[in-house]
Amino acid sequence: MLSHIRANSSRCLLTIKTLNKSSSRLVLPQTCHNGPHAILAISSVRFLSTKDLLSADSEKFNVADIPELIPPVPKPTIEDMLASGQSILKELEIWSWWKPSSYFRWMFEAAYINFDLPWWGTICAGTFVLRLLMIFVPVMAQKSAALNSRYRKEIAEFRDRIQDAKAEGNNLLVQQIFLEQMDFMKRKGIKMGRQMLILCINGGVFMSNFFALKKMINANYPGFADGGALWFTDLTTADPYWLLPIISAITIHLVIRSGVDSGSMPQDMPSTMRLAMLYGMPAIIFFAGSQMPAGILVYWCTSNCISLSYAILFRMQAVRNILNLPPIEKSTVSFMDAINELKSKNKSKKSKPPPSILDLKKKDLENFRKAGRGKPIIDVKNK
């Protein structure tokens, strides 16, 4: 009996191994069930096909429909970025790579983050470093002012001759005098382009710093609201006591009088421009500064004080020798002198000007033509 069961089992196993692998159904031959006991009973089995999985509807396996198990990482706040030493200019939308004011803004922000200074100290320190790096500008201005003061009388004579020629209406003479003046200035080394360059550099730096601080204040950059000192604790509002506008007006008047930033002394300017620069501009700065935020006026006062420090430094003969600066001829012109000069010019304009040479020539030519076309004049008395 046992030998018969073993023989049938071995035949069943051999039959299973020789089945076709591509078939999906297993059928055992009848010899496997011969005998009193069934050794293995395998019903029909259908294998799992990969075709059913790949041909399934794609909508049933859409990944987007699966809910997210992990929420997105929250973005850091502006305060967190500032505390970690990161720049927040782009987050506040006050950064543009093509604007010079953005780079000044970045400079102020770097000083504020790295040196842990209040904003009033950051503005003062940044302005001091910037003016120290640009010391070549007041040196150029001093050289230009020295040349203008040395030939002040000659330039004034050219100016008076041009005004007289304009009063006569002789444009040809105006051009001739102007060419003579340009030749004289070229021989003496007086360059008007240098003076314009000085004004453009100073004006460009001032406007860039002005708009840099103005946008930071308007964007509510952290720290400006409580970053002041003394009586101006809030840098985002105007000075309630008007002390900063007064300081700005007084210092700008002294800076213009010293000529350290403009490249020319007030005595070398025409009377109208002299009065406008010395007294008109400080008045405008006072009334405009009374409405500006205190942060801008802190920069303004700091810059003016540094300019006055340069003016005091350049008065020392040892410093002028080191920098090879020629001496500036002193000429005191008071406020009343400028007023009297302006009054005399206005009186001369109101009075009837004498006829010009061209007008006299035109009148003579017209009389000559009339005499040629008219009848001859007969003197009856001689007859």
From TrEMBL:
Membrane topology, record value: Multi-pass membrane protein
Keywords: Coiled coil, Membrane, Mitochondrion, Mitochondrion inner membrane, Transit peptide, Transmembrane, Transmembrane helix
The keyword Membrane is assigned to this record: yes
Any single GO CC term annotated in Swiss-Prot or TrEMBL for this entry: mitochondrial inner membrane
CDD domains for this protein: 5TM_Oxa1-like
Translocase recorded as keyword: no
Coiled coil spans: 148-175
Residue intervals passing through the bilayer: 117-141, 196-213, 241-260, 272-290, 296-314
GO MF, one example: membrane insertase activity
A GO biological-process term: protein insertion into mitochondrial inner membrane from matrix
Domain Membrane insertase YidC/Oxa/ALB C-terminal residue range list: 119-311
Primary site of residence: membrane
Cellular localisation: Membrane; Mitochondrion inner membrane
Record-stated family: Belongs to the OXA1/ALB3/YidC family.
Record-given protein name: 60Kd inner membrane protein domain-containing protein
